[in-house]
Design goal:
Blueprint (H helix, E strand, L loop, with lengths): L29 H34 L1 H4 L3 E3 L5 E4 L37 H15 L11 H4 L9 E2 L1 H5 L2 H6 L5 H9 L15 E2 H12 L2
Antiparallel strand pairs: 1-2, 3-4
């Protein structure tokens, strides 16, 4: 016979609890998973495609509406000429010319990296540029041509030139207008943009903006 244990102090022996079945987890149907995924997808698309761009655009319009609207510049008559951030193909003799472009300033085309100062390909490009300038009478054949005036930029649509690359074109512009070289020098110097932090960048001139400002003085 099995001995019955004596009762514990303070009361009767509790009756043994019957074994309980394991608590089953609630089943998740495929429809519930798909609905949760769809809701998350809609929220992500709303935030990334609508809410965030609208927020950034609103802040940009408050901080700098000119840049937020594409940095557009106008002709003297008020029509839009383009963006101050994109160069244009200008070969008019009475205007300053932009930096060379291997894609003809096409914003939809990519370009290979331009040749550097030690690249032999720069020699061929230099000869082509000198021939181009001789053809259109730049009066700089015997001058030292700045590197920026004979080498395309990485984007091929950079509208900026160093002041030296702009000033070397003064003789051509003066010969095709009634403007003196001294006046053009003062005019170009007034459009030089210096780096925000000294020694962190180089001074430059936005040629498109410069030409648009020059147009009223050319008599055309």
């Amino acid at each position: 016979m099995t001995a019955i244990p004596p009762p514990t102090s303070g009361g009767a022996v509790p009756a043994p609890r019957p074994p309980s079945a394991a608590n089953p987890r609630p089943a998740h149907s495929l429809r519930q998973h798909l609905r949760a995924t769809l809701i998350l997808l809609v929220l992500v698309l709303f935030v990334s495609a609508f809410a965030y761009p609208l927020f950034v655009t609103g802040v940009a319009q408050l901080v700098d509406p000119y840049a937020a609207n594409g940095s557009l510049v106008d002709y003297p008559n008020g029509t839009v000429a383009g963006s101050a951030l994109v160069a244009q193909n200008t070969d008019t003799p009475y205007l300053f010319w932009e930096r060379p472009s291997l894609t003809d300033y096409n914003t939809t085309l990519g370009a290979e990296s331009p040749p550097g100062p030690s690249d032999p390909a720069l020699g061929a490009l230099l000869n082509e540029t000198i021939a181009y300038m001789e053809k259109y009478g730049t009066y700089t054949v015997n001058a030292s041509l700045p590197f920026w005036l004979v080498s395309p930029s990485a984007s091929d649509i950079d509208p900026d030139l160093t002041p030296e690359a702009v000033l070397v074109q003064e003789m051509r512009v003066a010969a095709n207008t009634n403007l003196s070289v001294a006046w053009l020098t003062s005019f170009v110097n007034a459009h030089i943009v210096n780096p925000v932090v000294p020694d962190l960048g180089v001074p430059y001139v936005d040629v498109l903006t410069l030409d648009l400002a020059l147009l009223p003085y050319t008599g055309r």
